[in-house]
């Protein structure tokens, strides 16, 4: 089978996530980056195209130019990756979907919930794959945790705790990556809650199999002069009344990328930390503590499929990202087994952001999470 051809929107000079997408997409040699609109500035798009080693004529000035040219080529792109700030997500996806081109997008799906509903309608009408890069769902031991919960290893679930502390925005927002995240015109209504809070929400729901039904949100812009939230705490009620807590913050000095998920049940509990992703801790009701390692024998089929090396050879962020690309390639080829989050996850994420922001501003207390 030939390699799938990818076009990228965003990811130009100075971008963090663009090169990550390129590395992850090409890790398994199943996908090749061949085209892109890497910047809203045509000159910078050309510079990025040269850095990515693509044909200069396929480094385009606008999304419309790329869609028109690529759909006319016999070797045109099979899908686009959207790696631009949130306010570009809808327009970029709309252009691709209208041309029948599949989309893999950074999270959150859009800048607002209204845009997410519009996008959902476009995805349904286009009938081509649409996915979201909730990266942490690609880790082998996250998929193992999901399989253990689904098999009843924890018994009846009682409590879910997910936390995502960072400290990189504790002072000023300097540099390209920081500036757009604190700008409502580019980020949307949510700051930290939209940037990393949705990652925490998705991880909790992905592993537990439960859905948040109600929440009580307390969001704050702690750094003076900032209009979007940078510190968030949210109480959650999941399906069946299971209680939960979500913390997401970008002002916790000393923290880097400390995403952590703990789930407690009647028969056991689990603990996974993104900064030590190759270990999953299981606590049993009889007092035993078991530590599973990536590559161990006896892991679930999903965990094994997401692992590339024997135990003791660390795999991390890039490999997890690549697992999503490998799954998305399966979808494009009509093969089963993909765990890539889709538009339903996108709607849930945007509803969570919208509900949390509005409820916190109104000091509304407990409210329903309605899609």
UniProtKB/TrEMBL annotation:
InterPro entries: Gfo/Idh/MocA-like_OxRdtase_N (IPR000683), Gfo/Idh/MocA_oxidoreduct (IPR051317), GFO_IDH_MocA-like_dom (IPR055170), NAD(P)-bd_dom_sf (IPR036291). Residues 5-130 form the Gfo/Idh/MocA-like oxidoreductase N-terminal domain. One of its GO terms (molecular function) is nucleotide binding. Residues 142-270 form the GFO/IDH/MocA-like oxidoreductase domain. This is Putative dehydrogenase. Pfam families: GFO_IDH_MocA (PF01408), GFO_IDH_MocA_C3 (PF22725). The lineage of its organism: Bacteria, Pseudomonadati, Pseudomonadota, Alphaproteobacteria, Sphingomonadales. It comes from the Bacteria.
